[in-house]
Amino acid sequence: MRCVIARFPFDLIKSEVEHSMAGVEPESVTGGSVVVGPHAYPVKQVGEVITRQDRRDFTEAEVARALTRLGFVCRPAAAPARTAVPSWADPA
User: Fold this and answer.
1) Is the pLDDT reported for residue 84 higher than 70?
2) Cβ burial, residue 65 (10 Å; 0-12/13-18/19+)
3) What span, in angstroms and rounded, lies between the C-alpha atoms of 83 and 68?
4) Which of 10, 52, 57, 90 is the least crowded, having the fewest Cβ atoms under 10 Å away?
5) How far is the C-alpha of 31 from the C-alpha of 53, rounded, in Å?
6) Tell me, what's the pLDDT at 77?
7) CB 48 within 8 A of CB 59
């Protein structure tokens, strides 16, 4: 599948992405994640491996969109927990 990541065209194949990530230790997931084989990787980590570009050069959304089109399961970043404000602390 042809896609553009950080203004560069790439021809990605699901089996090649899986092969590239084989043996790569997953980092801790703090944002969006993608399941490749038995592991969940940060989307930016997979993007860095498959494009050989610095993580600052592309967005998480670009890589997640391409990986989703290839058939990988991508999960968005978890929403931060909301803390309840007691009614007595409401400034209104």
Assistant:
1) no
2) middle
3) 32
4) 90
5) 19
6) 83
7) no
pLDDT, tens digit (0-9, with 9 covering 90-100), for 7-37: 999 999 999 999 999 999 999 998 999 999 9
CA torsion sign, 57 to 59 to 62 to 65? Answer: positive
pLDDT at 92: 58
Token readout for 52 is 């050989």
What kind and span of H or E run contains 3? Answer: strand 2-5
Residues 6+ apart with CB under 8 A from 79: none
Task: Identify residue 86 by its one-letter amino acid code.
Answer: P
Give the span between the Cα atoms of 33 and 36, in whole angstroms: 10
Structure confidence by residue, pLDDT tens digits, 34-83: 999 999 999 999 999 999 999 999 999 999 999 999 999 999 887 666 66
Separation CA 72–CA 13 (nearest Å): 11
pTM for the complete prediction? 0.79
